[in-house]
């Protein structure tokens, strides 16, 4: 699945601050199953420039997958702060503003 980087950073921070964890690892995820093609569609939706995607040979996973974050919820109090679409919109806003800048 796709997870916005700020949610990953938040989950990592909670993990760093946690004490006496019962488990050695937890999953951090948006909890939203979204396919690669749906993600491409969101990227195109929020891009300032028309985009075209070419997918080469190989197999795409048609359905979205996500991770079970129940341990992160229980042990860290982690809940995603961004939906996949909100994350893509914020990221695209940053890219549209900064990627083509000439400093």
User: Mean pLDDT across all residues, rounded?
Assistant: 89
Tally of individual helices: 4
What is the number of independent domains?
Answer: 1
User: What profile does the largest beta sheet have?
Assistant: none
Find the structural class using helix and strand composition: mainly alpha
Report how far apart the termini are.
35 Å
How much strand content do the residues show? under 5%
Report the principal-axis shape: globular
Q: Any idea of the CATH class?
A: Alpha Beta
* CATH structural architecture: Alpha-Beta Complex
> In terms of per-residue confidence, which ranges show pLDDT below 50 for 5 or more consecutive residues?
none
Which sequence of SSEs, written as H and E, runs from N to C?
Answer: HHHH
User: Under CATH, the topology is which?
Assistant: UDP-galactose 4-epimerase, domain 1
InterPro entries: NAD(P)-bd_dom_sf
Protein name: NAD(P)-binding domain-containing protein
Please, could you describe this protein's structure?
It is a single chain. The protein is mostly helical. It has one domain (5-98): Alpha-Beta Complex (UDP-galactose 4-epimerase, domain 1). The protein is 45% helix and 0% strand. The chain has four helices and no strands.
């Amino acid at each position: 699945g796709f997870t916005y980087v700020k949610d990953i950073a938040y989950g990592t921070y909670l993990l760093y601050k946690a004490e006496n964890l019962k488990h050695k690892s937890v999953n951090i995820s948006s909890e939203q199953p979204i396919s690669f093609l749906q993600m491409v569609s969101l990227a195109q939706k929020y891009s300032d420039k028309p985009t075209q995607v070419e997918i080469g040979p190989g197999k795409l996973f048609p359905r979205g997958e996500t991770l079970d974050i129940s341990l992160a919820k229980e042990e860290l109090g982690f809940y995603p702060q961004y939906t996949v679409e909100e994350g893509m919109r914020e990221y695209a806003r940053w890219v549209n503003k900064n990627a083509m800048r000439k400093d």
